[in-house]
Specification:
InterPro entries: Glyco_trans_1
Protein name: Glycosyl transferase family 1
CATH superfamily of the largest domain: Glycogen Phosphorylase B
Strand order of the largest sheet: 3-4-2-1-5-6-7-8
Keywords: Transferase
Domain Glycosyl transferase family: 198-361
Structural class: alpha/beta
CATH class of the largest domain: Alpha Beta
Distance between the termini: 12 Å
GO molecular function: glycosyltransferase activity
Oligomer: single chain
Number of domains: 2
């Protein structure tokens, strides 16, 4: 059998609003297409879009440069159509991203359980879905599905893809006997330059940024609440990202109204993936109190851009303060987030650029390409 790999994810190119998983999958395909034949099953439109991508056909395999892709209308595809697509090629593995996707994890897992899929070899990458913070959001619904999955042995025999020690711990918290293969996310694209360019920074002035989907998990509201307590200096706080949850964004807008005049908060819209690093390079600090990330592509991108991270401790990027790289802080210690922002605000150019360069060098030191490439190959062997 050929090394045909079926990848399922809610969103993929040309979409860009789906966040880290789109980048992770694209990196896998770009690096391993010579050894595996990749087939990607995904939605026919980007996150929250009413219209499908222009000029595409649905429910059929389309040839791209290094992969084949099938776009589906998730609201109208039947179980029968879904089954036919999944069985249209002899696949060695089915690789699912996320645990709670109704269309791209739950539906195919039920088809597998009922014996309707030819390929029984399944790899599931939770992509942060098992982090405690993420599980707290709509907890009753999520734990209800977890209970159903356990009672029906829905995930028996699957291989779990963990991208970090933290994610391995989260998987084992729910599936104690899980068969886990560890492969970190492949390193990001080439840095902006071999040497980081110094940034201008005045004492008591700060350019701060948040880039992510606007949903409770990414915790923008917490960031805004921290800013409410800062009444010294001058801060420009810019927000980028798709308004995935309009209800959540309305909550954030109410918080913005109560922030003091020394802090200017602006929503700047959405970014294409190719724009993220260049945009981050315009700022001093990246404020991201996320409820949980299995990797956090945007954190890596921030450090590649010399943008000092102030993040939660619910990511693999830990002990940043000790390395003078940034801050990773418990969400139960709001005062430490405020203190970190004020510390960054008070830095002059020399002190800031020390942190900025430390962040840049730190993330380069973590990019062991050859080792991670071998780990990723072994997922599918």
């Amino acid at each position: 059998m050929a090394n045909n790999i079926l990848i399922l994810n809610s969103y993929f190119l040309p979409g860009f609003k789906g966040g880290g998983p789109v980048k992770s999958i694209n990196n896998i395909v770009k690096n391993l297409y010579k050894e595996f034949n990749f087939y990607i099953l995904t939605s026919d439109r980007d996150l929250n879009d009413e219209q499908r991508y222009a000029g595409i056909e649905i429910n059929k395999w389309i040839d791209k440069d290094v992969y084949k892709i099938c776009y589906i209308d998730v609201k109208h595809i039947s179980f029968s159509e879904y089954k036919n697509i999944m069985n249209s090629v002899d696949f060695s593995y089915i690789y699912m991203n996320g645990f709670f996707s109704p269309t791209f994890t739950i539906k195919p897992m039920i088809l597998r359980k009922l014996g309707f899929t030819k390929c029984k070899n399944v790899i599931v990458c939770p992509r942060g879905d098992f982090s405690p913070g993420h599980l707290k959001i709509k907890a009753l619904k999520k734990y209800g599905y977890i209970l159903f999955a356990k009672l029906t042995s829905l995930y028996n025999g699957v291989i779990w893809h963990s991208t970090s020690e933290l994610e391995t711990k989260h998987i084992l918290n729910l599936y104690k006997n899980a068969k886990i293969r560890v492969a970190s996310n492949l390193p990001h694209e080439k840095p902006l330059s071999d040497k980081l360019i110094e940034k201008e920074k005045k004492k008591d002035e700060l350019k701060l940024v948040f880039i992510s989907r606007l949903v409770p998990k990414k915790n923008l509201a917490f960031a805004l609440q921290c800013l409410q307590y800062i009444n010294t200096g001058k801060i420009d706080f810019h927000i980028y990202g798709p308004k995935e949850s309009l209800e959540y964004w309305k909550q954030c807008e109410e918080l913005i109204k109560s922030i003091k005049g020394n802090i200017k908060v602006s929503y700047k819209g959405e970014l294409n993936q190719s724009e993220v690093v260049d945009t981050l390079a315009l700022y001093h600090g990246f404020l991201f109190p996320t409820l949980g990330e299995n990797y956090g592509h945007v954190i890596v991108e921030a450090m590649l851009a010399g943008c000092v991270p102030i993040i939660s401790d619910e990511t693999p990027w830990r002990e940043l303060r000790d390395k003078e790289v940034g801050w990773d802080i418990s969400l139960s210690h709001r005062e430490e987030f405020i203190e970190a922002i004020v510390t960054l605000l008070s830095m002059d150019k020399k002190e800031f650029n020390k942190y900025s360069n430390n962040a840049y060098r730190y993330i380069l030191s973590k990019s062991n390409y050859k080792e991670i490439l071998e780990q990723t190959k072994n997922l599918f062997k």
